[in-house]
Amino acid sequence: KPRIAVFASGSGSNFEAIAQAAADGELEAEVVLLVTDKPLAKVMERAERFRIPSVAFNPKAYKDKADYERTVLGRLREEGVDWVALAGYMRLIGPTLLDAYPNRIINIHPSLLPAFPGKDAIGQAMDAGVEVTGVTVHYVDEGMDTGPAILQREVPVVPGDREKTEAAIHAVEHDLYREALRKVLAESAVTE
Ligand code: GAR
């Protein structure tokens, strides 16, 4: 089975959705590691509940991004990681990790990219007054929320209600991430 590491900085609801799908056999993969840059993030508790090993690295403790990523990469190699899934990991991926995992790092973002990249995509969409926003899962490159889309799904904005809009987006995210992972894993199994 392909071995996935999830990178997350926050609550980790997407981490949990992926871990649950793998545990239920809905995703033919194993989540072998959680990597975080925020040791106090709630996602750490979720990893513990799933008995998935986790590791927290403080990027500020390294001399630069390359140095930080070399350390992360060392850990990924120890765990035999094949794929990296970013799930609310609020940091750009640099060449060290991109070169080590070409077309093997994917990300989820709460908008219909290329609309509303970066932070608070849901707030950006509401402020812009759009009626429909959505979710994108895409391959990661050096840009912020750029890279070829794997799957996208629309989600209607609930006008003036951020909480409801956010809940709807999160629900779609949890399904879409599982589907996108199934898709990329199936495609790579064919070409290998
Ligand atoms: C998700 O909505 C994800 O799409 C977003 O962070 C949230 C993390 O939620 N990512 C980005 O905005 C990336 N630019 P979670 O911690 O509950 O999975």
From TrEMBL:
Keywords, A to Z?
Purine biosynthesis, Transferase
Ligand binding (N(1)-(5-phospho-beta-D-ribosyl)glycinamide): G12, S13, N14
Q: Where is this site: Raises pKa of active site His?
A: D145
* Protein name, entry field: Phosphoribosylglycinamide formyltransferase
Pfam families reported in the protein's UniProt record: Formyl_trans_N
In terms of NCBIfam families, this protein maps to: PurN
Matches recorded under InterPro entries:
Formyl_transf_N (IPR002376), Formyl_transf_N_sf (IPR036477), GART (IPR004607), GART_AS (IPR001555)
Superkingdom of source: Bacteria
Q: Member of which family?
A: Belongs to the GART family.
Catalysed reactions listed for this entry: N(1)-(5-phospho-beta-D-ribosyl)glycinamide + (6R)-10-formyltetrahydrofolate = N(2)-formyl-N(1)-(5-phospho-beta-D-ribosyl)glycinamide + (6S)-5,6,7,8-tetrahydrofolate + H(+)
GO terms, molecular function: phosphoribosylglycinamide formyltransferase activity
Q: Does the keyword Nucleotidyltransferase apply?
A: no
